Amino acid sequence: MAAKICSCLAGGRTEHPKYTYERLSKSTATDIKAKYNVAVIGSGYGGSIAASRAARAGVSVCVLERGKELQPGEYPDDIHQAARETQVDINTGDSIIDCKLGQPTDLVDVIVNHDVTVVKGCGLGGGSLINANVGLDCDPRVFDDEAWPKVFRDDLAAVNGVDREHAWQMLKPAPYPRRYPSLTKMGQLKKAAKAVAKEVLDIEDVDKVFYRPPLYVNFKDTKSNHVGVPQLACVGCGNCCSGCNYGAKNTLIMNYLPDAKNHGADIFTKVEVEAIERDGEEWRVSYVTHADDNAGEERRLRADIVILGAGTLGSTKILLNSRKSFFNLDVYHYLLCFYPRGLHLSDQLGERFSTNGDTISFSYDGTDPVESVGLPPDFDEKKPVGKYVHDVTNPSIPPPTLGPCISSIIDLRSPQKPLRQGYVIEDSSPPHMTEMGYSILMAIESHVSGIDTFPDKSLWEDAMRGLRPDNISRTLGMLTMSQDKAQGKLILDEQGAIVMHYPNIGEEKNFELVNKGHKVAAGSLEGTFIPNPVWGGLFAKSRDVKSVITVHPLGGCAMGESGQTGVVNHKGQVFEGNTSDVYDTLYVVDGAVIPRSLGVNPTLTICMVAERCMRLMAEDCGWTINYSFGKKH
Prior knowledge:
Layout: E1 3-6, E2 9-10, E3 13-14, E4 18-21, E5 35-41, H1 45-56, E6 61-64, H2 79-84, E7 86-90, E8 99-101, E9 108-112, E10 116-121, H3 150-154, H4 156-171, H5 184-201, E11 210-211, H6 256-262, E12 266-268, E13 271-279, E14 282-289, E15 298-308, H7 311-323, E16 326-330, E17 335-339, E18 359-364, E19 384-385, E20 388-389, E21 409-411, E22 424-428, H8 435-448, E23 451-452, H9 459-467, E24 476-481, E25 489-492, E26 498-501, H10 509-524, E27 528-530, H11 533-536, H12 538-543, E28 548-550, E29 573-575, E30 582-588, H13 603-621
Parallel strand pairs: 5-6, 5-15, 6-12, 7-9, 10-28, 15-30
Antiparallel strand pairs: 1-4, 2-3, 7-8, 9-10, 11-21, 13-14, 14-15, 16-17, 18-24, 18-27, 19-20, 21-22, 22-24, 23-27, 25-26, 29-30
Helix pairs in contact: 1-6, 1-13, 4-13, 5-10
C-alpha cells in the first residue's frame, strides 16, 4: 500500500510521523461487476479473513460492506461528531420510546430491544474499528461442549495450531509494553485483583490472575507493516473505542483488508446485502446501495461462492430474509412480481444467540486516582491532563498516557472451578468525548443504585468525599465476559428488523456472580460500587427488567452436526433444511457460527474458526493459499 509520509517538529521534539492512506474501497457501486468467483458479505473479522484468503488463492473476489470507509484521522473526535456517527434502533415493543435515529452507514450501530442491547461497529473493518483490541484464547473447556460438531472438536490441534498462527501473524497482538509509561488504571486494577483473587479463588499470589493481555495494537512506528501499510506507535490516548485516529490500532483496515486488495479483491462500501438466492449452479446476491448518487437502488450480482461475514446479527438477518418469499414492484414493467427466494434452511436459524456474558460495572470515586477516561486530541500540548502537566519543550518528559482502552486483566477462569463460574475483568477507558455524559451518569447512579463499600467511614469523611472535585478521575470501569446459556433467539419483526429475543437473560446466575466480584473490586478501591445501569441501575429500575448490553453478540447461525442441531456444518457450509446435506458453496464464517458463549473477548476464537473454514474451503475447491508475506501471490 502506497502512502504519503511526513513528520513535524514541536519545540525541538520529533512528533510521531503522520501518514495518509490510500482508499481500499471502490468509489461507487456502479463498479461492481456482474459476476465474481467469490462474494464476501461483510468486512468484520470473518469477512476480512475470507476476502484475504480467497484473494490469495487467485480467484476473483468482491467484498460488500454496508458501512463507510474511515481511515485514521476521520474518526469522531468530539461529542457532536460522535452523535453524527451513531445510528440507534430502539425496538422494545413500547411505542412511546421506539424509534430509529441516524443513517445505516453510521459508525456506531446501537440496537435496543427489550431484553438485550447490542453495540457494534458499522464500517469497513466492522467491529475492529471500535473494539477494545483484546486477543484472548477462550478456556480450553469451551471446546469440550458437544454444541461444537465432533469433526471440529477432533481438529482442535489444527485450530489451536496452524489456524491460530495464521490469525496471530496477521493481527500481531502484543501486550502493553513494559518500556512504555506505567499506567495508573493498571495499578488500580492490580490492587483490585488482590482482593478479588482472594475472595473468588482463595489465591494470595496476584500474579496468577493479573496480567497484560495481548492487544491488537501497534507499539512501534513503521513506514510499512507486513502488508505494506504504514502505522504509528500507540500514543496512549485511550480512545480506542471511538476509532483510532493515529493508525496505531491493528484494525482490519491495517492487515486483512489491504492484503485482500493487494491480491486483487474489489472492495465496496455503502452496499447493503438484503438476501441471496440460488440461480442454477450460481448464487444471486441482491443488494441496495447507500451512496448519495443512487441510494436505495436494488441491484444483483452473481457468484459461484457466497461467504457471509456480516456478523451475528447481519449474517442471520440475511439468511432469514433469504428463507422467505417476497413481492417486488417492477417499476419498469409496472408489474407486481413474485420472487420465490425461499432457501430451504434449518429451523435452528436464529437460535443459540449469546451475549457472551458481557457486563460492565464501576468503582466510583475511590480513594486514589484512576485516570481512565480518554485524553483529548491536544493532550500532548503544555496543559494539565488529570494529574499531568506536559511540557513539549522538554523531550525528556514523556507525554501523559492512559494506554489503550484495555491494558490489563483479572482472569478468574480456574481449572478448579466449573467453567460457568469463570469470568474475566478488564479495565476500560471510555473515549474522552463521553466524559461529561459519563460523569453525569455516574453521579446519578451513585445515588440510585450505588452501594457504599466503605461503611466504616465517619460522617465527616463521607461528607468530604462528596465535596471532592473530579470524581470521575477516581472511577474505574470494569468490563467482564462470562458464560451465559446461549438461549436467545434472533427473529425478524413485521418491518423486517432483526430482533434479539432473550427473556430473563439478566436473571442468569453468571451476572449475579460477576457483580459480586465487581463489588469486591470496588471495595478494595474504597469506591462506590455501581452495577450496570441497564441491569441493576436507573434504566433497569425504570423499566423493571434486568437487561444486558453486549458488544460481543454470538450465535444465530450456530455450527451443528446437522440441520436438526445447527445452521452450518463444521466448515461453515449452510445446511439444506433440517438435513445433513449442505449448500456446498454457501458459507457463514463469523461470530454467528459460534454455538455458545466464549467467556472472553471473542475475536481471536472467531478468527481461528474463520481461518479453518477458509483452509477447508481451499482444500475442497482445489485452491492453494500462499500465506507468506512480501510479494503478491
